[in-house]
Write a structure and sequence with these properties.
- This protein is α/β, with parallel strands linked by helices.
- The protein is built from 18 helices and 31 strands.
- Helix 3 (56-69) runs antiparallel to helix 4, helix 3 (56-69) runs parallel beside helix 10 (292-305) and helix 12 (341-350) crosses helix 13 (377-387).
- It is globular, with a radius of gyration of 24 Å.
- Adenosine monophosphate binds at residues 246, 292, 371-375, 393-398, 421, 484-485, 497, 500, 506, 511.
Length: 635
């Protein structure tokens, strides 16, 4: 383990958090310097930089234009699915954001109002996010791959004044019309917005304003036509910047709240210290603005830093080939890229020897960062061999907004060990605990927890639900935040993250809830009971499998095939194709404990070819025996 800059920074961040983060706060321009760094007067609720005021959009755009970066590229939109590429300088992006902020203000959007952004990977998605930040409004971006039921749940919880959407997204195989999905979500939602704004795309323009609705509908162009640019609104450091919903085990998504001050400080610090990226560097994150990686490292991190960010509307393979990332890196001279391991596994499958790298000049590339799911050693070795640069794993979650464990390329690069994202990042006091909350020795697996307080930029609570925040994260181990992941430290202080200890699914780096998929299955009229489990998948890391018990009146032998096909379609329609549910099996019964809890973990172990630990509380062990042939690989 390093005894150098990393160790000193990590120790100081825990021993003197106010000093450490007070220094980091100098990376941000404040309207009122924060009089306190850490407010720990109401544990387990901690707030950073209380009393400080700022504007996040000012720090991401205006400040750089004022300081001479107006002509530097801020955002490059590279879109192989439309065959276009556009660059926006900081001055141009500022002009668009200020205008759209004015347009939103004309709809009555102001400080504290929520705006849902349901858009594909177009520059206007970034413009809409920053325009909200400019007004002190709270954006909530919903991933474009989510279907109406998921979108409706988020609309009901966030209660947006305005929804900004686009007519369509473009998948390699098809054009995905967004407006019918938005209409479907609004029909289901008890909350209705005051206005819906739709960006028309030529691939599939939408019918806007033709339905008889209680809200106004207009196109993006109509709205901005007469808009006056809006100025930045001063907000408190502790005011929310955004809500990002993430999946828990139940079907009800959790609204992760991100504040303005702590977020700006943490992201600015992480760009330089974790990723080694500074002002003027070009940085490419292949994710989606609907996920936390997109929020932090497509939008806010690079722009707060004065770097250039590449917004890529395409896939790692198939748009048009497995050399797509290498083309982007060489075209825009990217210093580093960030994506999920699954994307590299997809490239490896198509181009195992990395032949396609040879057509591109990748000398600009210093490092590749991978996160969102476990980086398996095979993929790590392959990427390192093909690219010849450090391939750096980093472990974090929507809740934290930036890395918990990483190899700090900017602060103090350390040796990389395959299978480990390396060491706790300054600010995070990471511990591995046993069931009783005692720390386990190095080499022993347990629950990964973080001692409170969490550092700046992490969630202060869940939107409108302090109790759920405490119950879901802080109540298992007193004084700790429970990550939901299991793992172990080695003797050198490197953490190995082994996967979720709960029923949260991670499918191709996308976090999904078993509960939502189960709700979609349970809604079928012939289903009596169901369970969804995540099983290992070579490419996507994990994929869901459905198990259903049909109602007694249904003839499974005659109708089973039709019903399972309908169930697969239901999940596509309700949750989204991104759930990647392809296999549903009709079974006679589901294994349960005597108190009625379905034994998902036991089924998952069977499906992954392991010998399951069968709990003594199982109600009827013969149910599990009957399931084994269905669940076991190849079964
Ligand atoms: N809008 C609408 N549909 C979407 C979508 C979106 N934004 N994103 C994905 N989908 C659809 C896909 O078209 C696909 O539909 P299909 O079943 O009809 O083919 C389905 O959802 C599953 O998509 P995906 O998980 O992307 O699988 P894939 O087989 O099409 O592609 C990868 C596999 C590895 C190329 C892809 O998962 C990928 O690029 N992953 C990167 C992960 C990532 O960025 N994670 C974010 C966290 S860092
Ligand atoms: P999300 O909130 O969508 O970012 O998903 C967070 C979850 O993804 C974590 O709790 C982990 O289970 C998993 N995850 C993210 N990054 C990593 C990583 N580098 N290694 C292992 N698991 C990861």
């Amino acid at each position: 383990m390093s005894t150098g800059a990393y160790a000193a920074a990590h120790q100081r961040s825990l021993a003197d958090p106010a000093g450490f983060w007070g220094d980091a706060a100098a990376g941000i321009e404040w309207l009122t310097e924060p009089p306190t760094v850490l407010d720990d007067s109401h544990p387990p609720f901690y707030r950073w930089f209380r009393g400080g005021t700022l504007n996040t959009c000012f720090n991401a755009l205006d400040r750089h234009v004022r300081d001479g970066r107006g002509d530097q590229a801020a955002l490059v939109h590279d879109s192989p699915v439309t065959g276009t590429s556009r660059t926006f300088t900081y001055a141009e992006l500022l002009e668009r954001v200020a205008t759209f902020a004015g347009a939103l203000a004309s709809l009555g959007v102001g400080k504290g109002d929520r705006v849902i952004v349901y858009m594909p990977m177009v520059p206007e998605a970034v413009v809409a996010m920053l325009a909200c930040a400019r007004l002190g409004a709270i954006h909530s971006v919903v991933f474009g791959g989510f279907a109406p039921a998921e979108l409706a749940a988020r609309i009901e919880d966030a209660e947006p004044k305005v929804i900004v959407s686009a007519s369509c997204g473009i998948e390699p195989s098809r054009v995905v019309e967004y407006k019918p999905m938005l209409d479907g979500a609004l029909d289901r939602s008890g909350h209705k917005p005051e206005a819906v704004v739709v960006l028309q795309r030529e691939q599939a323009p939408a019918a806007v304003g033709v339905r008889d609705t209680e809200w106004e509908e207009m196109t993006w162009d109509e709205l901005v036509a007469d808009a006056e640019p809006a100025d930045c609104v001063e907000v408190e450091a502790t005011d929310p910047l955004y809500i990002l919903y993430t999946s828990g085990t139940t079907g009800r998504p959790k609204g992760i709240v991100r504040d303005n001050g702590g977020h700006a400080v943490a992201l600015r610090w992480s760009m330089e210290n974790v990723y080694g990226i500074g002002p003027g560097d070009v940085w490419f994150t292949a994710s989606d603005v609907g996920w936390v990686v997109g929020h932090s490292y497509i939008v806010y991190g690079p722009l707060l830093t004065g770097a250039t960010t590449v917004l890529y509307e395409g896939k790692p393979v198939g748009t048009p080939d497995a050399g797509a990332f290498w083309r982007v890196i060489s075209t825009y001279r990217c210093r580093a890229m960030f994506t999920a391991p699954t994307a590299y596994r997809a490239i490896k499958r198509e181009d195992p020897r990395g032949e396609l790298t040879k057509g591109y000049d990748l000398t600009c590339l210093d490092a590749v960062f991978l996160a969102g799911e476990r980086l398996d050693p095979d993929t790590y070795e392959w990427a390192t061999g093909v690219l010849g640069v450090p391939v750096v794993d980093n472990w974090w979650q929507t809740e934290t907004g930036w890395p918990i464990v990483a190899n700090l390329r900017g602060l103090d690069p350390m040796p990389i060990k395959a299978g480990s994202p390396s060491v706790p990042v300054p600010g995070y006091d990471v511990r591995v605990l046993d069931d009783q909350g005692a720390e386990v020795p190095a080499g022993t697996e347990g629950a990964i927890a973080i001692r409170l307080p969490l550092p700046p930029g992490t969630l202060p609570t869940l939107w409108g639900d302090d109790d759920r925040y405490v119950a879901g994260y802080l109540s298992v181990y007193d004084g700790y935040y429970l990550t939901g992941d299991g793992g172990r430290f080695d003797e050198d202080g490197y953490l190995y993250v082994m996967g979720r200890t709960d029923d949260v699914l991670n499918v191709a780096g996308h976090r999904l809830s078993t509960g939502s998929i189960e709700a979609a299955l349970a809604g079928h009229p012939d289903v009596a009971e169901c369970a969804v489990i995540g099983v290992a998948d070579e490419m996507k890391g994990q994929v869901p499998r459905g198990l259903v018990v049909l109602k007694g009146s249904v003839d499974a032998a005659a109708d089973g095939g039709r019903i399972t096909a309908e169930l697969v379609q239901r999940v596509r329609d309700e949750v989204g194709a991104v759930a990647s549910l392809r296999q549903v099996d009709v079974v006679a019964a589901l294994p349960k404990t005597r108190s009625g809890k379905i034994l998902r973990k036991t089924m998952r172990e069977l499906a992954d070819g392991k010998t399951p630990k069968v709990p003594g509380t199982i109600e009827d062990a013969s149910v599990l025996d009957a399931l084994a042939p269905v669940l076991r690989p190849g079964g």
